[in-house]
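For reproducibility, we list the full input for the nicotinamide-adenine-dinucleotide complex.
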Amino acid sequence: MNKTKIGIIGCGNISGIYFQNLTQTFVNTEVYACADIVTERAKEAADKYGIHKVLTTEELLQDPAVEIVVNLTIPKVHFDVCKAALLAGKHVYVEKPLSLTLEQGRELLQLAKERNRMVGCAPDTFLGGGLQTCRKLIDDGFIGTPIGGTAFLVNHGHEGWHPDPEFYYQAGGGPMFDMGPYYLTALVSLLGEADTVCGMTKVSFPERTITSTKKFGQVIKVEIPTHVAGTIQFKNGALVNMITSFDVWGSNLPRIEIYGTLGTLLVPDPNTFGGPVFLKMAHGTEFKEIPLTHIYQENSRGIGVADMAYCVQNGGVNRASGELANHVLELMHAFHISSDSQTYYKLASTCSQPTPLPLHLVKGYVK
Ligand SMILES: NC(=O)c1ccc[n+]([C@@H]2O[C@H](COP(=O)([O-])OP(=O)(O)OC[C@H]3O[C@@H](n4cnc5c(N)ncnc54)[C@H](O)[C@@H]3O)[C@@H](O)[C@H]2O)c1
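The corresponding predicted structure, in tokenized form, follows.
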């Protein structure tokens, strides 16, 4: 099996699962090099996962052997690192979000098109067994025509546990930009592209007091909305109500539900790869748990990279695509723009529904 050579930039918290899966789970990827502005982190990862080359970011981008750059840096440098990778002639896959601004997202897609390179972006949880099972049930008509749904991510923020929680309350943070990508990517994967958003936002707590140990007692000034509510109208006519909030102390709301003319689907947590999936048919008396139809039910982060590697070698369109991530980026902004302007926001970006994974895959393969 030909292995596509990957260069990972950013060896922080999330990188471990990428190193693990791209070196051990997927048969078509090889982590050829890694880099981090804190060289020690790249060295540590290289030792742990047997990576031969620890390079600077610049060296990694200029190394002709690297085919895909996997950008696992922090959100505010996603754009710069992705742009540099595309300019160096690499395909690039980036952790969420694609970029901070709509202009940056569009620029990356345009640059990739000009250079004939692929852009890919997390989350790739929609390729997991849980969400792929939901997709199959919808595609096969089990809930009939989708009518609408709900998507809820509500909690009280992260200053109670995170050692450096300030960024959650600054531009690029907030509940929508932090967790929205999982919910919105799942919804677009299940229902297709969105059309219009009506959003309302608020800041319920203008200041937050850190109660985690390192900065206990320090006060954070909240600079972005922390309670974001609204409705998305999808091109297929489905209306999904969504709340993302850091202002709520407790809730029994489900993560995602999809309602159809023939039944209701309870969708698992879109921040995971597994189930459970429940279905209630129009004439059924109760929800029944549905056995998952697809593999990749455990933490398979990096499957989007393996899928991109398949396309590098064989052609085709990568599923966790830049187009999808850019649509999701616009959706996240749409809630805020709609709220600020007190008007509906019609999306400008388009996005094809990503192709489902086939049934009967062997672990390690994406085709
Ligand atoms: N940690 C998680 O559980 C988690 C989960 C899902 C997604 N993510 C996403 O993954 C990304 C990384 O998150 P993280 O938690 O691993 O952050 P982190 O801060 O732990 O790691 C980021 C790493 O990138 C390096 N870095 C920063 N700027 C760089 C640059 N210009 N060039 C090279 N290296 C640079 C940092 O030194 C650091 O080692 C973020 O986009 C985040 O949204 C994180």
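The first strand starts at residue 4 and ends at 9. The mean pLDDT is 97. Both points were considered when choosing residues for closer inspection.
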